């Protein structure tokens, strides 16, 4: 049986909920289809010690400030999950859980959304599926020969899983630095941290607040036709959150240049020497989870879909929300997704107007 609604939102993490909040305010009938069994999107699956890089009030979705977590300036992931669960309930957002969207097709004047438990037709679709389900691993020689354990950020939980082991952490971004600090801090694993270029820390007094301000200034500059001030990447790669700062200042975070290949038992460096290792943790990023749009054959580069604002250039009934700066400055953050969600839903309201 095919069900009908005005808008299908795919993904019920923070971006999907922000879309739901605005759709509800505009009185647009919608459903939010989410693969997870419980609220919280990717925040349910991060490593145990992860804390936000911004204080609670700077990590809020539209309409409701995130409450302060007692004793923590930077809330942990469990606090974010509680906040998202409460947000969804407070605004009675129509989330249908445990529903995996397989594909989206053009169907007369609307779009048909096929799921593992039936299909929907809608006049517009908002995709908010994030990146967590599409971990990226680089093509490094020897990756298949290596007989130790290989994990991506998405599988890392805690240093206790590596007690007494020799671990190589790959990646000079926030995940790499934080996981390296997590392992170094307890001293139970023998850590080697490798990065493609020298780690670029943001100034110690810069956290997500300043990053958001920077993204906002950039948006204004672009809107007003002024010179592009550059994305947040121009400030550095690593937010020096307290555990990273502590490990770095204690001299525990010394990065080595990337190894040239994996061997069966470890890694080989540019000078031909080898290090034996038990595990390699790839903190090498993500790609947008967009496979469900394959049938629409939309133009794009680097796994993205070409957009104007949030709207797909080649499919005016489709909006993309939350994946990265390409769907709105800071739209892949809690505080940043509210504005593109508002803009996307306003555009949809215009589009649906008879
Ligand atoms: P997600 O949270 O991934 O939600 C997407 C949802 O869609 C999931 O529930 C998923 O199961 C579902 N889904 C995916 N595909 C389908 C499908 N085909 N059918 C149905 N459902 C589907 N941001 C901050 O603001 N502050 C921070 O401190 C911060 N720290 C971060 C630390 C890490 C390690 C990472 C990776 C990100 C961090 N971010 C931070 C960025 C961002 O806020 C999170 O990545 C956030 O989870 C993105 O929300 P989202 O709703 O876009 O995606």
Summary?
By secondary structure, the protein is of the alpha/beta class. The protein is 22% helix and 21% strand. It has helices spanning 14-25, 77-90, 174-186, 208-223, 242-249, 338-352, and strands at residues 2-4, 7-10, 30-33, 95-96, 101-107, 110-115, 118-122, 124-127, 149-152, 166-170, 190-195, 255-257, 261-262, 266-268, 274-276, 279-282, 307-308, 311-312, 315-320.
Strand order of the largest sheet: 4-3-2-8-19-18-17
Instruction: Flag low-confidence runs.
Output: none
The helix content is: 10-25%
Q: Got a strand count?
A: 19
CATH T-level topology of the largest domain: FAD/NAD(P)-binding domain
- Helix vs. strand class: alpha/beta
Strand content: 15-25%
How many domains? The number is 2
Separation of the first and last Cα atoms: 27 Å
Task: List SSEs in N-to-C order.
Answer: EEHEHEEEEEEEHEHHEEEEEEEEH
Mean pLDDT: 93
CATH evolutionary superfamily of the largest domain: FAD/NAD(P)-binding domain
Named at the architecture level, the CATH assignment of the largest domain is 3-Layer(bba) Sandwich
Number of helix segments? 6
- Give the CATH class of the largest domain: Alpha Beta
Q: Which compounds are bound in this model?
A: flavin-adenine dinucleotide
Fold and architecture overview:
With 354 residues, this protein is an alpha/beta fold. The chain has two domains: 2-133 and 286-352, FAD/NAD(P)-binding domain; 149-201 and 237-282, 3-Layer(bba) Sandwich (FAD/NAD(P)-binding domain). Helix content is 22%, strand content 21%. Strands 4-3-2-8-19-18-17 form a seven-stranded mixed sheet, covered by helices on one side. The protein has a five-stranded parallel sheet with strand order 9-16-10-11-12, with helices on one face. Strand 3 (30-33), helix 2 (77-90) and strand 4 (95-96) form a beta-alpha-beta unit. The two termini are 27 Å apart. The model has no long low-confidence stretch (mean pLDDT 93). Bound molecules: flavin-adenine dinucleotide. The site of flavin-adenine dinucleotide has 34 residues, from helix 1.
């Amino acid at each position: 049986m095919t069900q009908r609604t005005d808008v299908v939102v795919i993904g019920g993490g923070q971006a999907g909920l922000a879309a739901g909040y605005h759709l509800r305010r505009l009185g647009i009938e919608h459903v939010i289809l989410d693969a997870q069994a419980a609220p919280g999107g990717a925040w349910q699956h991060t490593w145990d010690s992860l804390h936000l890089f911004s204080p609670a009030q700077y990590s809020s979705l539209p309409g409701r400030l995130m409450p302060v977590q007692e004793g923590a300036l930077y809330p942990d992931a469990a606090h974010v999950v509680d906040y998202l669960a409460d947000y969804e309930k407070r605004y009675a957002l129509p989330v249908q859980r445990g529903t995996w969207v397989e594909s989206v097709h053009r169907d007369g004047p609307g779009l048909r959304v096929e799921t593992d438990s039936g299909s929907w037709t809608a006049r517009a679709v908002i995709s908010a599926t994030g990146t967590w389900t599409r971990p990226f691993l680089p093509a490094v020689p020897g990756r298949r020969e290596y007989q130790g354990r290989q994990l991506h950020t998405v599988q890392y939980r805690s240093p206790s899983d590596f007690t007494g082991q020799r671990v190589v952490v790959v990646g000079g971004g926030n995940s790499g630095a934080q996981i390296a600090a997590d392992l170094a801090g307890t001293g139970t694993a023998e850590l080697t941290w490798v990065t493609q270029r020298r780690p670029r820390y943001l100034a110690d007094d810069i956290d997500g607040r300043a990053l958001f301000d920077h993204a906002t200034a950039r948006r204004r500059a672009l809107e007003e036709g002024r010179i592009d001030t550059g994305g947040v990447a121009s400030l550095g790669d690593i937010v020096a959150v307290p555990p990273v700062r502590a490990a770095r200042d204690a001299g525990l975070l010394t990065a080595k240049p990337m190894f040239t290949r994996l061997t069966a038992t470890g890694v080989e460096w540019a000078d031909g020497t080898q290090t034996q290792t038990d595990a390699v943790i790839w903190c090498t990023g993500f790609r947008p989870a967009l496979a469900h749009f394959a049938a629409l054959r939309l133009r794009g580069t680097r796994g993205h879909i070409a957009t104007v604002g949030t709207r797909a250039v080649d499919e005016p009934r489709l909006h993309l929300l939350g994946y990265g700066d390409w769907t709105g400055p800071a739209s892949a953050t809690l505080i940043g997704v509210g504005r593109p969600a508002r803009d996307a839903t306003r555009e949809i309201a215009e589009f649906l107007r008879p």
